[in-house]
Structure prediction request, 344 residues.
Amino acid sequence: MKRILVTGGAGFIGSHTVVELLNSNYEVVIADDLSNSSMEVLNGIEHITGQYPIFEKIDLKCKNSVSELFNKYTNIESVIHFAAHKAVGESVQNPLKYYENNLSPLVYILQELHSLQRPIHFIFSSSCTVYGDTSISPITEDAEVKSAASPYGNTKQIGEEILKDTCKSNNFLNVISLRYFNPIGAHPSNNIGELPQGKPQNLVPFITQTAAGLHNSLTVHGDDYPTPDGTCIRDYIDVVDLAKAHVLALKRLINGENKENYEVFNLGTGKGSSVKEVIQSFEKMSAMSLTYKVGPRRYGDVVTAFANTSKAEKILGWKSKTSLDKSILKAWNWEKKIRNIKNK
Ligand code: UD1
Prediction:
């Protein structure tokens, strides 16, 4: 069987996707620099699938290392490219780190693929952040791509542009960009989950860490928005559901079912939940009360963003299955496991 290269395969969404690929009998090579993950993740994958994945610790920002990777694994047929930094605030502080890390590996990988001169399938890990400050939800794939609110968001927009342009000049290349809404949760086996480095900026890991005692309280970033309870609305999508969409997208490309050689799909639940609803869900599922206070709005937050998922439903045959409650419970079970919390 031909191999799938999964860059960033030890990360949060990458590791869950590797599990789904191995369970669907694909042969996987993970390439990861472990900058935001650990070797433990590979053990977790083995626990779930019975297979320890082929792993290369590699800095994809190094062009020579990327070449060596493709020289070593000559039968790579598909690439799922997750490897990227994703902290919005850090990207504002250090934009060049983000432009280098999120874009140069993409270019080097595409150069290698171009030189193969044979059909290649490529899945790009994109984000709803490409829609920028949109006032219309549910968001469809043809919504206007507005100027990015952060260098991180810009790297996703530019990444998509790089792929679109490369597809125009390379008939061997077939690409699907998957625009994720807000990935949360963990594997139901509790063997893999999110491992944020430092203080998380995202809502759900901050909630579970606060409940685990790592922070005194959660700050709700604003409750004076024009929404029913005043807090922002997002589309929280379970990471396992998200991972399964990658397998379906890959199959579409492998089976040659794609209509264009560059396609885009939204991946969300289609349902918006407010920050307060997420907190309520956590409190219900954990049977704990969460300490939180309301602070000022966070710069750059859009009021409401949730997906129109019709395209993924119709074309990929994909639909999210996991409820917000179940997904949050999995995130909490994972937090308890990594913090050795027994009785909460
Ligand atoms: C953010 C990024 C997005 C990225 C995604 C996944 C921005 C503007 N967008 O999405 O590009 O793809 O993460 O990494 O940063 N909240 C609180 N208190 C907290 C944390 C969050 O109230 O401590 C609120 C936020 O204000 C927001 C909601 O929770 O309303 C979700 O925030 P977050 O999890 O950071 O995701 P996004 O901002 O939607």
Q: What stands out?
A: The chain has eleven helices and 13 strands. The pocket of uridine-diphosphate-N-acetylglucosamine is lined by residues 86, 88, 127, 129, 149, 153, 182, 201-203, 206, 218-221, 232, 234, 275, 298, 300-301 (CB under 6 Å). The domain at 203-234+270-337 is CATH 3.90.25.10 (UDP-galactose 4-epimerase; domain 1).
